[in-house]
Amino acid sequence: MLIRGIGSLIFMYERRSVMAIFPERVTKFWKEWEIRVLVLISLFLQIVLTLLGNRRKYILRNRIRVILWLAYLGADWIAAVCIGVLSNSLGDDCENDSQKTKKIIWAFWAPFLLLHLGGPDTITAYAMEDNELWVRHFLGLLVQFGGAFYIFLLAWKGMPLNILAIPIFVAGLIKYGERTWALRSASSSHFRDAMLRRPDPGPNYAKIMGEYTLQRNQGFNVSLRPVIEPSTRVNCLDPDAPILQVGYELFNTFKRLFADLILTFQDREKSQSFFHNTTWQKAFAVIEVELGFMYDVLYTKACVSYSSRWGHLLRFVSLSFTVSTFVAFLLIDRHERSAIDLIITFLLLAGAIVLEIYAIIVLLSSDWTMLWLSKHGMASCFCRLPILQPADRRWSNSMAQYNLLGLCLKEKPIKCLGPLQRLPGIDGMLEEYCLRQDEGILHRFSYFYEMLEEHSYKRYVTVSDDLKGLIFQQLKDKSNRAKGQSNANAIYKQLCANRGDLVLKEKYNCYINLGWSMEEDFDQSILLWHIATDLLYYLDDQDQNSSSGRSPDCKATSKLVSDYMLYLLVMRPFMLPDGIGKMRFQDSCAEAIQFLQDNNADIKGRTDACQKLLRVNTEVSPLEVKGDKSKSVLFDAARLAKSLQSMETDGDNWSNGKKWEMMCDVWVEMMCYAASQCGWKEHAQQLRRGGELLTHVWLLMAHFGISEHFKISQGHARSTVVVT
For the chain, how many helices (H) and strands (E)? Predict the structure, then answer.
């Protein structure tokens, strides 16, 4: 914020130099309208932030994020520049009383800019990193308030308009202070410190040992005997309790995961008491509520507006001061003011009131209000407005899809380059440039081309109920393996490390044939199983899927998770364990494109491509033939696909349906492994991008106890001195 203030001063200095090249008439016109335009732009940006700020948690469209990003960055800069221009303009006219009187109404706009710098309740931070800059925002509060107050003093003539600026100053300070406090509360250090319990020295060791030594020196036979304390009772959650109440109670416990803090074994038992006795529908609904609360804490003014009585009081003061100023402005003499300036002033006042009322309506329609009403038995007496806060849209409920074969077959033109690609020979030339590694303009263009290509082949689908049910059931079965065991903690830790091998070993007993694909790096295993899944998906008979009698469509679910995991590998590599997945993906694409070009005459679509790939003789390992310079796994995946096919023909009691059931379970376990290995910061960042299925899986795993964060038990294991 201080940098923006300095930037505004530089902007004003450069502005004078730039305006000197324009005719005097243009310069005079711009001098009259500059402040007016900047103030209106600032108000417009506040409207954009207010309307779109909270929608990004359940909307995936990139244009929403781009508009919000531009508005978030531009709003502070425009307001800071406008304060600088106002002070500069009034300072130039400080000796001209007539001009000073004329511009008093401009000075009246200064506290509104403080309101705008305070921002709406729906967004305080665009990204997690913004929370860490709360000190800069606090310094900006001081600087910008000083600038606005300087404008107020320059324009002071004891007129009613000067006096009306005071309550707006108070409202602006409240809004700006709320934003700074919200950023501070959501910063990693303060968020973590707020969840640490009070320091506990434990039993007085020095006193106990002093008594022990005294008794022994007096000749007594002294020993220490453990004190048997009553076991800590776990407050089990009612599976039939309202979802909001369960979600909030679990949120207060498991939000420690977002600060990388440990949990107690009692926390695990409390969570399991609910999730082991509920349905997958209710389980995922509770997780949506938890992550919705987490989003509000990290990216909005929830800690001020929702969680504190002071927040409600400040909201009342801010709104009442703004409304009273509006009413008073209607009553004062305005005949000497410019009509344009009066219209802008009315817009600023009305905009401030409407945005404040909108914020109150959003508050009343939020899960926080519904939770309070639910606790007091009044939820049925209040209906939220679905336009402002859809009850079933706490996240996008979507998963991205990305497919290697679809990319290599060039099944659709790249966005923004579609018309160009249709020209003869252009597509091949673009591909050639993409494969070149020369520095210079071609290298830069190839990077731009690859980026467009990646995003053109990305698509989103709704997370299917079948997939949610499979994830829930697999995690529940795993949790039951360790529940009640003496070495439960070690079992839970081992379950976190399973990445498909447990399914192959214990459930389907086929690790001997397929285990080699799980012994590689995780990114390599993803690529192997992704390509193999695609090869079998387009060749297997569609009607053979349900032969195992299992109700979910395992073939379609396997395809969904396969394409989702490749999306994470290519576009969200920071959510996966470290590796060279992008390099392997690019080399595999290059080899696939080369293979498709060599067989271009015989390939009409994905099915033909899959048939051609599986006809290649892979008796000898590709590593022995090609060496390890290229990291491509294309034909290793073909070997895996053939091994999966051979199980259906050579194995006992193996059907096509059972094969897809096994592949589906492998993919779910691999996704759970990826979720457990992803850091909390990466999960928190995805909340502002419409949410990520991987984050929901990670939290569900923690609720089932499959996490390494459960490390301590509550209570003291102490001893007392026994004299005999």
Answer: 35, 6
- Judge contact between 449 and 462, C-beta under 8 A: no
Residue 292 CA to residue 248 CA, distance in Å, equals 10
Q: Are 180 and 138 in contact (CB under 8 A)?
A: yes
CA–CA dist 368, 362 (Å, integer): 10
Vertex 589 angle, CA 585 and 591, to 5°: 120
**How far is the C-alpha of 597 from the C-alpha of 599, rounded, in Å?**
5
Start-to-end CA distance of the chain, whole Å, equals 71
**pTM for this predicted structure:** 0.88
C-beta neighbour count of 133 within 10 angstroms: 15
Query: Which H/E stretch holds residue 340?
Result: helix 339-364
Backbone angles phi, psi at 111, to 5 degrees: -65, -25
The two three-digit tokens of residue 377, written as one number: 């038995």
Calculate helix-pair angle for 309-331, 339-364, nearest 10 degrees: 150
Q: Is 630 helix (H, G, I), strand (E, B) or coil?
A: coil
Q: Please give the sequence-ordered ranges of beta strands (E in DSSP) within 312-362, or none if there are none.
A: none
Taking the C-alpha atoms of residue 413 and residue 489, their distance in angstroms, rounded to an integer, is 51
Q: Which residues of 306-340 are buried (b: 16+ CB within 10 A; e: fewer)?
A: beeeebeebbeebbebbbebbeebeeeebeebeee
Instruction: Give the number of other Cβ atoms within 10 Å of residue 714's Cβ.
Output: 11
Whether 81 contacts 5, CB under 8 Å: no
Residue 281, token pair as written in the block? 């529908």
Among candidates 467, 471, 491, 466, which has minimal Cα distance to 481?
A: 491
Cα dihedral sign, 167-168-169-174: positive
Residue 713 pLDDT: 65
Distance between CA 489 and CA 507 in Å, rounded?
A: 22
Single-letter amino acid code for the residue at 356:
E
Backbone torsion region of residue 705, taken as left when φ is above 0, otherwise alpha when ψ lies between -120 and 50, otherwise beta: left
Measure Cα distances from 359 to 302, 308, 321, 363 in Å: 12, 16, 16, 6
Q: State how far the Cα of 236 lies from the Cα of 472, in Å rounded to an integer.
A: 20
What pLDDT, in 10s, does the model give residues 184-217? 999 999 999 888 877 777 777 888 888 878 878 8
In single-letter form, the type of residue at position 695 comes to T
Q: Which residue has the tokens 């403080």?
A: 114
Q: Using alpha carbons, select from 656, 99, 632, 115 the residue that is nearest to residue 356.
A: 115
Mean pLDDT of 596-602: 78
Judge whether 493 and 551 are in contact, CB under 8 Å. no
Question: Which tokens hold the place of 310?
Answer: 């002071």
- Give CA–CA dist 535/701, Å, rounded: 31
Token pair of 332, please? 């004062």
- Where in 345-468 does DSSP place strands (E)? 398-401, 459-462
Share of the chain above pLDDT 90, in %: 49
CA 709 – CA 693 distance, rounded (Å): 20
More confident residue, 710 or 530: 530
Instruction: Mention every residue, 6+ apart, whose C-beta is less than 8 A from residue 710.
Output: 262, 263, 264, 265, 267, 268, 489, 492
